[in-house]
Amino acid sequence: MKEKLFSYSKDRPFYINLIFCIISFSGLIILPIVFYYIFNSFISNKLLCNLLADILLIVVLYLMYFKDLNKEFKVFTGNFKENAKKSFKYYLIGFGMMVFFNLLIMFLLKNISSNESQVREMLYSNTLIALISISIIAPLSEELIFRKSLQPLVKNKWIYVILTGLLFGGAHLLTNILNNEFVLTDLIYILPYASLGCAFGLMDYENKTTFSSIMMHFIHNTFTAILLLVVYSGGNV
Q1: Lower CB density within 10 Å: C or N end of the chain?
Q2: How many structural domains does the chain have?
Q3: Rounded to whole angstroms, how far apart are CA atoms 31 and 117?
Q4: Per-residue pLDDT tens for 189-231?
């Protein structure tokens, strides 16, 4: 029964799942820009427009997958203790690899990614909006884009895990690419993000619910953001 609940989206025609996937990935750039300009036509605050655009993106994603997500939520809550235990185990593995690769990058390049720099800058200058974006918007939108949209299209467990991880990692290079600052050495930044992305994909596949990665993504981002703010308030950044 548990397996069937996770595979209902695979019962939809392949082309429908593919269309949903394409629409989901357009949420990385295209849809947020479109939604931003819609809100910007009557709201002057750019940060607020970005936030509203991100919220509208989540609404669109939810409307596409609401039947799937409603069933997955029942799976998630129905066996919460076991789901949480397994999710935390995979998260620790992914987080450990992420730390290792970040330390390696700091040793080799002595720098952090442009995406990380941008996130920190927003967090320090616009804390409230940044916290909402980091802790709530990102876990919801990214897990629906990188995990949920690919579930019905990729049947093999490890292909699914690796693919979602690499796409998740690659997406964090968009800042460099859009600013025409991308260089070949930037590819190394995929490794820490992909490590965590693979862990998210693995916990979803094992637990048969996207809410596993949403939960752990929320915990990871919130804890990281609070830690950065504490360090920043202490004058160590």
Answers
A1: N
A2: 1
A3: 24
A4: 999 999 999 999 999 999 999 999 999 999 999 999 999 999 8
CB 189 within 8 A of CB 173: yes
Distance CA 170, CA 167 (A): 5
17 contacts 9 by C-beta, under 8 angstroms: yes
For residue 19, give every residue at least 6 positions away whose Cβ sits within 8 Å of its Cβ, in sequence order, or none: none
pLDDT at 110: 80
CB contact set of 70 (below 8 Å; sequence gap of 6+): none
Per the structure, the complete domain to which residue 222 belongs is given by 2-233
Q: Model-level pTM greater than 0.90?
A: yes
First to last CA, the chain: 50
Instruction: Give residues with Cβ within 8 angstroms of 68, minimum separation 6.
Output: 8, 9, 148
The single-letter DSSP state of residue 126 is S
Q: Residue 154 phi/psi, 5° resolution?
A: -115, 110
Number of H helices, E strands in the chain: 12, 0
Residues 6+ apart with CB under 8 A from 190: 166, 169, 170, 172, 173
148-188 pLDDT, tens digit each: 999 999 989 999 999 999 999 999 888 778 778 778 888 99
Cα 194 to Cα 173: distance, rounded to the nearest angstrom? 11
Residues 166 and 161: their CA atoms lie apart, in Å, by: 9
| Residue 136 structure tokens | 């709530």
Asked if pLDDT for residue 236 goes beyond 90, the answer is: no
Amino acid at 31: L
DSSP codes of every residue in 150-173: GTTT--SHHHHHHHHHHHHHHHTT
